[in-house]
Design brief:
Layout (H helix, E strand, L loop, with lengths): L3 E5 L5 H9 L4 E7 L4 H17 L4 E3 L4 H9 L2 E7 L10 H8 L2 E5 L22 H13 L2 E3 L5 H10 L5 E5 L13 H9 L3 E4 L14 H15 L4 E3 L10 H8 L31 H10 L4 H19 L5
Helix pairs in contact: 6-7, 10-11
């Protein structure tokens, strides 16, 4: 069974890389930029290059779907780069191709705020995609960079799903009607994404879970079963949003970047600005097997579990990463 997690933002270390191997994780989409400029993003890539050189028996830079098979053959984890904000392309559409050549395979069109491309889910009004956003989607389609709308507002997401010539993704979120967080997705948004062939990764981040850190695995798996029954099992996977070992101070960078001098902790309360505890059944990369086991308990076949745990993402990678001729 292929195991792919389509979003993590951990405080990377040899310990975490070894936990990936212990958990049999074949590929991970990692966030390498929140609010960074192009040059700052290049520095983050340099940091990853040093990790690839330091731990070649554990991880390597994934560029193509075929690298997932290579990871399985060599007992390593393929690392795929992505951005949670379009800030790395600044106001230059030409940087989409440059960053794809540097290994970027996912880019969110917005984080929580309005960007040059689309509206974030925390804005009061959502006018939809901007003119630049429409052009950038076309360029992302051309070079093979996945349009990710995980933090984007409803209208922007549905417009992106309809406009994009390639299926788009919500890499890490859950249904709004299961847990009404601003970051979770309403039924009509999920429908727009999957009807256009897109993918959604279910998040294990407590702010996205029913009952937060106390969420029961059985409830999570029942939600997955309901979504698969409604939309088909082929459109879903895992995007854990694991932020393992990050200091609480990192939340400030994630939420505020450089756009405000005030404090904005987003989904967390100002009284509890740090990372919430993960649910007991998912502490780190070694726990994916627990999820797979309980998915069988709610009625999924072995083949369907394999799709949810990574097979669907692998198919999506095969469709989305290769440049158009």
């Amino acid at each position: 069974m292929v195991l792919i997690d389509c979003l993590q933002y951990a405080n990377w270390s040899e310990k975490i890389f070894r936990q990936m191997r212990a958990g049999g994780v074949d590929a991970v989409h990692v966030t390498i930029a929140y609010h960074e400029t192009f040059r700052e993003t290049v520095l983050n890539i340099e940091t990853w290059n040093r990790w690839f050189a330091q731990f070649p028996d554990l991880i390597f830079h994934g560029a193509w779907a075929s690298d997932v098979a290579l990871a399985r053959e060599t007992g390593r984890t393929a690392i795929f780069f992505g951005f949670q904000n379009p800030s790395p392309i600044e106001d230059d559409i030409g940087l989409v191709e440059v960053l794809h050549k540097l290994g970027a395979r996912f880019m969110q069109l917005s984080y929580n705020n309005q960007s040059l491309l689309a509206t974030g889910c925390y804005e009061a009004e959502d006018p939809g995609l901007t003119r630049m956003g429409r052009q950038v989607i076309k360029e992302m389609n051309r070079v093979g960079m996945v349009v990710d709308m995980s933090h984007s507002a409803d209208r922007s997401t549905m417009e992106a799903a309809d406009l994009s010539e390639r299926p788009i993704a919500i890499t890490h979120a859950n249904p709004y009607d299961w847990h009404p967080a601003l970051r979770n997705k309403r039924a009509e948004v999920i429908r727009a994404v999957v009807q256009n062939g897109g993918m959604m990764g279910f998040s294990l981040y407590p702010h996205h879970l029913k009952d937060g850190s106390a969420c029961r695995l059985a409830d999570f798996c029942a939600m997955v079963a309901r979504m698969a029954e409604t939309h088909g099992v082929d459109h879903f996977g895992i995007g854990s949003d694991l932020c393992q070992d990050q200091p609480d101070s990192v939340v400030h960078w994630m939420r505020t970047g450089r756009w405000t001098k005030e404090t904005d902790f987003g989904e967390g309360s100002a009284d509890t600005p740090g990372f919430p505890p993960m649910p007991a059944w998912f502490q780190d990369n070694r726990d994916f097997g627990t999820i797979a086991g309980d998915l069988k308990e709610v009625g999924f076949s072995a083949n369907e579990v394999a799709k949810l745990m990574g097979g669907n993402w692998l198919r999506f990678f095969e469709q989305g990463f290769v440049p158009q001729s």
